[in-house]
Backbone:
C-alpha cells in the first residue's frame, strides 16, 4: 500500500510502499479516504526538538482521517465491514485509574496514532475497534476527516457554559474557527476571535464570529471598546499557543472569568499570576477529546444544524491528492489556509 513515512530521524517524509497492516482480534482495518494535516504533522516533517524527542522512526504519520471499514478482528462486534468511520487518535491503556473510571481522555499511558504508532497517511490504517467513530453513510468525507480537530474545538468550547456569555477566542487556526462556530451555535452573546492573519480572521468571520481583531495592530481591549463591553470577557478559549495572546486574554477577562487552554506553547513562558489570583480566574488545560461524549455531541450538533455543518465545511480550504503531499504541506505551512486535506481514495 502507499504510505507517507518518516523513515529515519531527520527532516522530510517519503511516500513509499508498505505492507498492508493486519488487524488484531480487537482491531479494525480502515481504507483511508481522506486525511487532514495538522500542526503535529508539520512538526514531524520538519523534525523539530519535540519530534526528535518523541518519535521513533520508521513511522507512518497522520492522525486525522475518515474512511471505510474493510476488515474487523475476530472479537469485534461494535463495527461492521462497509461502515464509514472517523478515528479517535488517542489509543488508551484501559487499565489505569482514569481509564477504569471512564475518563479515557485522561489515560496516563495514551498512545497517539501517527506519533507513537503507525498513522493514517496511507491506504490503510489499523486502530482498536473502540477508537472507531461510525459515521452516517452519507457524510461528506472531508467533514469526516476533520472530526479530530472539530473534537478539540468542541471539547474546549463546551468546557464552560456559554449561553449569553461574551466569549473571546485567541487564534483563528482551524480549531479556533470551528470553536467560533460552536460558540455561536450554542448561544453566546459576543464571539470575538483574534489572530495575526487577516486571511484566517476572514475564515472566523465567515464561520460566525461577531467581531474579528488583528492583534498586530490592536490589543484585545480594542474589541471590548468596539462592542461597548465594560467588564471583560466571561469565557476565554486559548487556541493560539502564543504567550502574548495568553497575556492579553488574561488581561481582558471579567472577574471570575473562565479560560480553557488548548493552544500548545513551544516553550514554557511567564504568566501574570497576580492578575489570575486577584481577578479570580479559572484556568483549565484541555487535551484531546472526551472519549466519547465529545464525539456524540459533535455528531448530534452537526445532525441538527446545517449552519454549523456549513461552518465546519468552510474550514477546509485546500484539498490535494495524496501524491501531491508536498504541495499540501507547503499550503499548510503558508498560513494562508484553513484545514488542508489529503485525498487517499
Ligand atoms: N491540547 C490539544 O489537545 C490540542 C490539539 C490540537 C491542537 N492543539 C493546539 O491548539 C492550537 C490551535 O490548533 P490549530 O490547528 O488551529 O493551530 P494553528 O497553528 O493553525 O492556529 C494557531 C493560530 O494562532 C494564531 N496566532 C499566533 N499568534 C497569535 C496571537 N498573538 N494572538 C492571536 N492569535 C495568534 C496563528 O496565526 C494561527 O492562525 C495550536 O496551538 C495547536 O498546537 C492542541
Ligand atoms: Zn491533529
Ligand atoms: Zn489508561
Residues:
Amino acid at each position: 500500500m502507499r504510505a507517507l513515512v518518516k523513515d529515519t530521524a531527520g527532516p522530510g517524509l517519503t511516500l513509499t510502499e508498505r505492507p498492508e497492516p493486519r488487524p488484531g482480534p480487537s482491531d479494525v482495518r480502515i481504507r483511508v479516504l481522506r486525511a487532514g494535516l495538522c500542526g503535529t504533522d508539520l512538526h514531524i516533517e520538519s523534525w523539530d526538538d519535540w519530534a526528535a524527542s518523541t518519535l521513533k522512526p520508521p513511522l507512518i504519520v497522520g492522525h486525522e482521517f475518515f474512511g471505510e471499514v474493510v476488515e474487523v478482528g475476530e472479537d469485534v462486534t461494535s463495527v461492521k465491514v462497509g461502515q464509514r468511520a472517523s478515528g479517535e487518535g488517542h489509543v488508551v491503556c484501559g487499565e489505569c485509574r482514569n481509564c477504569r473510571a471512564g475518563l479515557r481522555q485522561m489515560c496516563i499511558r495514551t498512545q497517539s496514532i501517527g506519533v507513537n504508532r503507525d498513522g493514517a497517511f496511507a491506504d490503510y490504517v489499523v486502530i482498536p475497534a473502540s477508537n472507531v467513530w461510525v459515521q452516517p453513510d452519507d457524510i461528506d468525507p472531508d467533514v469526516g476527516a476533520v472530526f479530530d480537530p472539530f473534537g478539540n474545538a468542541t471539547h474546549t468550547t463546551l468546557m464552560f457554559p456559554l449561553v449569553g456569555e461574551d466569549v473571546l477566542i485567541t487564534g483563528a487556526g482551524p480549531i479556533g474557527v470551528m470553536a467560533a462556530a460552536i460558540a455561536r451555535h450554542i448561544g453566546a452573546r459576543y464571539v470575538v476571535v483574534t489572530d495575526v492573519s487577516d486571511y484566517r480572521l476572514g475564515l472566523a468571520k465567515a464561520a460566525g464570529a461577531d467581531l474579528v481583531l488583528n492583534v498586530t495592530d490592536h490589543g484585545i481591549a480594542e474589541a471590548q471598546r468596539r462592542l461597548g463591553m465594560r467588564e471583560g470577557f466571561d469565557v476565554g478559549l486559548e487556541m493560539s499557543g502564543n504567550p502574548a495572546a495568553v497575556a492579553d486574554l488574561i488581561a481582558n477577562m471579567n472577574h471570575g472569568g473562565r479560560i480553557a487552554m488548548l493552544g500548545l506553547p513551544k516553550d514554557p513562558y511567564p504568566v501574570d499570576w497576580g492578575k489570575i489570583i486577584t481577578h479570580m480566574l479559572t484556568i483549565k488545560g484541555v487535551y484531546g477529546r472526551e472519549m466519547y461524549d465529545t464525539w456524540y455531541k459533535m455528531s448530534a450538533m452537526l445532525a441538527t444544524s446545517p449552519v454549523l455543518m456549513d461552518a465546519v465545511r468552510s474550514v477546509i480550504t485546500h484539498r490535494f491528492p495524496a501524491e501531491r503531499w508536498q504541495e499540501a504541506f507547503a499550503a499548510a505551512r503558508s498560513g494562508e489556509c484553513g484545514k488542508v486535506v489529503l485525498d487517499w481514495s
